[in-house]
Amino acid sequence: MATVKSDIEIAREAKMKPILEIGKKLGIPTEDLIPYGHTKAKLSLDFISGLSKKKDGKLILVTAINPTPAGEGKTTTTVGLGDGLNRIGKKTMICLREPSLGPCFGMKGGAAGGGYAQIVPMEDINLHFTGDFHAITSAHNLLSAMIDNHIYWGNELGLDTRRISWRRVMDMNDRALRDIVCSLGGVANGFPREAGFDITVASEIMAILCLATSIEDLERRIGQIVIGHKRDKGQVLAKDIKAAGAMTVLLKDALLPNLVQTLENNPAFVHGGPFANIAHGCNSAMATKAGLKLADYVVTEAGFGADLGAEKFFDIKCRKAGLHPDVTVIVATVRALKMHGGVGKDDLKKENVEAVKKGLANLGRHIENVKKFGVPIAVAVNHFVTDTDAEVKAITDFCHEHGVEGFKCTHWADGGKGTEALAKHVAALADKGSSQFHPIYDDAMPLWDKVKTIAREIYRADDIVADKSVRDQFKAYEAQGYGKFPICMAKTQYSFSTDPNLKGAPTNHVVPIREVRLSAGAEFIVVICGDIMTMPGLPKVPSAETIGLDAKGQIAGLF
Amino acid sequence: MATVKSDIEIAREAKMKPILEIGKKLGIPTEDLIPYGHTKAKLSLDFISGLSKKKDGKLILVTAINPTPAGEGKTTTTVGLGDGLNRIGKKTMICLREPSLGPCFGMKGGAAGGGYAQIVPMEDINLHFTGDFHAITSAHNLLSAMIDNHIYWGNELGLDTRRISWRRVMDMNDRALRDIVCSLGGVANGFPREAGFDITVASEIMAILCLATSIEDLERRIGQIVIGHKRDKGQVLAKDIKAAGAMTVLLKDALLPNLVQTLENNPAFVHGGPFANIAHGCNSAMATKAGLKLADYVVTEAGFGADLGAEKFFDIKCRKAGLHPDVTVIVATVRALKMHGGVGKDDLKKENVEAVKKGLANLGRHIENVKKFGVPIAVAVNHFVTDTDAEVKAITDFCHEHGVEGFKCTHWADGGKGTEALAKHVAALADKGSSQFHPIYDDAMPLWDKVKTIAREIYRADDIVADKSVRDQFKAYEAQGYGKFPICMAKTQYSFSTDPNLKGAPTNHVVPIREVRLSAGAEFIVVICGDIMTMPGLPKVPSAETIGLDAKGQIAGLF
């Protein structure tokens, strides 16, 4: 019996082409590709600007049912579908998020697809890559240092040191930095105050970089960041600290999309990676927009399940970046649907058509939801070796009854060949031009009503509830002129409700809003329902303990 | 009258060659140069290993008199001499340190030479460059996170949380992080304890990276780091925390030398940048050793004046990396010598031959000192427009009387053409092979005696003094097996003594040792005399406030 190869083994056997060659296929001249090694490159801003008059390709979003511990394989399917489209002769680019470095040292595992549907060089992508996250960390912490420096030298702006909301960041799982007291040690070190660190992906700078549509827009957004308040409660912005210019300088290369390739040598942008809870969880607008100019089809993904990821993709990213999605692919797996149907993790290998059918309520609701945004849908059944034909058929039959088509996809084992049927259908849907995309709420709607619209239309909750202080905060943001911003929901990804244990398609629930935060630079209002962790910790035995270079100089223990 | 161009204007007018072309001149195949953009590249480890049987070129150290606010131009002279040697037909490489990103946002100014003796691309080199410092920051902070994680999950090693000496680092001037209390906020965040941040260049990882001679040596040294002590005062090492492998993975690219070019398209390695006080202050051993295989001459520099920089270059870097310097060039300026001769900063423009002559005592002593290491000497008089011929002649006459030759060098205005005379002399000295280099103390000498040797022979102090606790610490290190390590002196760079105001060539002083620290991974003992700042702050009006991108998208306000 053949041994199943690990992701890293497959990735290492990849026959990568020089990145300049991948770029050439897209019509990018050598001087506009800034290489980082021989298999990674950034695309120059000048070249991107020069594309503005070209017609946009078709935009395909890959999203998923609510995630379960069984795994759905959204990134893997995004890569597989991209390879499949290229395989059937459609000029296609893939747009993915960049993984974060810190978590690699906690739990084993990368974020560059899997099996024969991966982007490479996977080790580089998962570690320092082209330095984007380091640049974001530097820019973020420069602002932090300038804030404390301002206070140290006299605090001319009158910042209330108890009300500084701008923290520091590090791309590391380090719970010891969540809450600190800084500026200890005497007069030379400033005024002691409470502070803390988040992981870099949770930085507002990350969200800003991913939504900015130009270097000017980046600087404008950075200037708008609210870093804290004065004793009279007036806001202090990053531009008041005079930090926006220097921060933009630190980010000027990070703003450029990163080009890599799939195992089948198809082009992929991997750029930006904002949190999918307190931020919108999609790759950069710069990359997606550039991709649409360079290819006829762009396949991209959004974080978590469609209730969170697709909703934010539509209502935040597409709204703000002027994108018009043509097709949405919802990824489901037999295993995950079984879990939504009530099966425990240990019993997933046994055939259980009834449980699949029961769990399909989850998929069905996501299909209904995406329809509300006016975007045509296809379903990808990401195949696992233990899936039976009867189980797969239950899904495709269900899809057909609901007016969409579902396809068994074997890209994990077969690469692009395994998504050919899906690819043909998706291309046909996109080419038909039937998408009538629109966000689910208008800019002008009051903030409270925007949240209620999402909760009712997408989560199928009866209502939203919040303390008076939270409701007052919504009104205060509207009074300050932030009422036109979209909403960025932060809730559990495991359920339509705020209870992670409510699988399937729960109804009759209520969404309690615990907290609301302003991301004035990212230009959205974060609505927090439940516990949101912005600085992870390491597990008892972190994978870092077994990571190292082997005798051949290759990385061991990381994947 | 012609306007004098600024460094950045000159750098922007540079006609840079593709870095692959620069590499080709050195015989480096394309696949062994890992490009970072079109004008920066890293050299592969495989290629470096393959050079081991080649004959070494000649090694030329550029050092200086004690620095003054007037400036000496050591980096500028290193670049100018490298260009001059290439100009007279000598195949020469330059090896410099990488500048730190953080300080760029405090005071205006870069660290890539000046005038027509610069390395380019200067903006990249001064900012993120190839990400080496970010990798060092990540590796350092991974160890920090793993230490607090170990304590959180039960502290099996029995670390005393009051005795953790491993801090965190950030490449930013941020005084608020010098002293913090971390792990606040309750049970989920660990056990509150005192902690703090240093700037990345002060990280022991930086010193280790610069002294490591292979990836295996890097990992071995990291494992040796002492991160703290147990309640029974036993040491805890990085390898006890099982961090060395993962840290080495994070540093595997940072270990590779970075290739750039001078304005005259000559090759330069810019790699590593350890502090010149608590560390040894030279570029990486990897780069210097690779340079010696690739070129017939390597010009490199050491931090601060020759009393600190050259001494550590000889006694730490050359000793440990097995280097044999052939010539030492001591840089002096008329202006700086005037300051050593008692002239104030405001009166430097007036001709004052007597002051120059008086200040020459400082140069004279450095000449005597370098002779003690057995290395032939030349003097570079780095020319300023206000210098008079009589002043320059006073220096060259003095040199001649002391058995060495001094040369007026106009590389700042003229590039390599301005150092031709110096270059010819230096090449001749090197080719003669008369260097009889040896460190100034033996490995076997007791630690206290090593310090006394440096203080007497180099600083010309009568003695060294220290509290009993410090003297006991020396003995404790010897008992622990660290007695064979060299000494890394941390004292003011402005004087031979520990009093920064004692210019010229002071005698009859005593060197008080305030503190002694072990850098077990870097393999030296740091002896601290005076205040050493390992985390700078920003000034009242940081240059960050005026840094930004101009209408052309070019960086303004940085230089």
Task: Characterise this structure.
Two copies of one chain form a homodimer. The first copy, chain A, has 559 residues and is an alpha/beta fold. Chain A has three domains: 7-130 and 254-432, P-loop containing nucleotide triphosphate hydrolases (Rossmann fold, 3-Layer(aba) Sandwich); 132-251, Domain 2, N(10)-formyltetrahydrofolate synthetase (2-Layer Sandwich), CATH 3.30.1510; 447-529, Roll (Formyltetrahydrofolate synthetase, domain 3). Helices cover 34% and strands 19% of the residues of chain A. Chain A is globular. The two termini of chain A are 23 Å apart. The mean pLDDT of chain A is 96. At the A-B interface, helix 6, strand 9, helix 9 and strand 25 of A face helix 6, strand 9, helix 9 and strand 25 of B.
Approximately how much helix is present in the residues of chain A?
A: 25-40%
Stretches with pLDDT under 50, minimum 5 residues of chain A: none
Give the name of the CATH superfamily of the largest domain in chain A. P-loop containing nucleotide triphosphate hydrolases
Overall pLDDT metric of chain A? 96
Number of domains of chain A: 3
Secondary structure tally, helices of chain A: 18
Kindly estimate the percentage of residues of chain A that lie in beta strands according to DSSP: 15-25%
Using the alpha-carbon principal axes, give the shape of chain A: globular
Q: In the CATH classification, which architecture of the largest domain in chain A applies?
A: 3-Layer(aba) Sandwich
Main β-sheet of chain A: number of strands, strand sense, barrel status? 12 strands, mixed
Distance between the termini of chain A: 23 Å
Q: In the CATH scheme, what's the topology name of the largest domain in chain A?
A: Rossmann fold
Global structural class of chain A: alpha/beta
Number of strands of chain A: 26
Radius of gyration of chain A: 23 Å
Biggest chain pair interface: A-B, 76 and 76 residues
Note the quaternary state here: homodimer
Q: Can you tell me the CATH class of the largest domain in chain A? A: Alpha Beta
Protein name (chains A, B): Formate--tetrahydrofolate ligase
Organism (chains A, B): Taklimakanibacter albus
Keywords (chains A, B): Ligase
EC number (chains A, B): 6.3.4.3
